[in-house]
Design goal:
Helices cover 63% and strands 0% of the residues. The chain is mainly alpha-helical and 100 residues long. About 12% of the residues have low confidence.
């Protein structure tokens, strides 16, 4: 494969990954930050692995279901009324990851 083509493909994939990360961050700021940044009403704090570990043990399918249907003090869909299951998964993975 031509080295220029490889460089272009790598560049495009990097831009695409950045755009995806930015979209998750934007959605987090709009929909999740208010509760998860501070642990409001018992919400697991973003990027605090100890808060997320017991929840992650339940499995992603359960966490996505809880986000969509509501769980404890989190209302259905939280504040993300247009989130899909994939959006919730990406947001959960973002919040459960340690701060980089």
């Amino acid at each position: 494969m031509n080295k220029w083509l490889v460089a272009i493909l790598l560049s495009v994939s990097g831009v695409s990954a950045f755009a995806t990360e930015q979209a998750v961050l934007d959605r987090y700021q709009k929909s999740c930050f208010a509760c998860h940044a501070f642990g409001a009403n018992g919400a697991p704090k973003s990027h605090v692995v100890a808060d997320w570990a017991p929840r992650m043990e339940k499995g992603m399918d359960t966490l996505v279901k809880h986000a969509a249907e509501g769980f404890n003090t989190m209302p259905p869909k939280g504040l993300c009324f247009d989130c899909s299951a994939d959006d919730f998964k990406a947001l959960i993975e973002f919040m459960a990851a340690p701060k980089s």
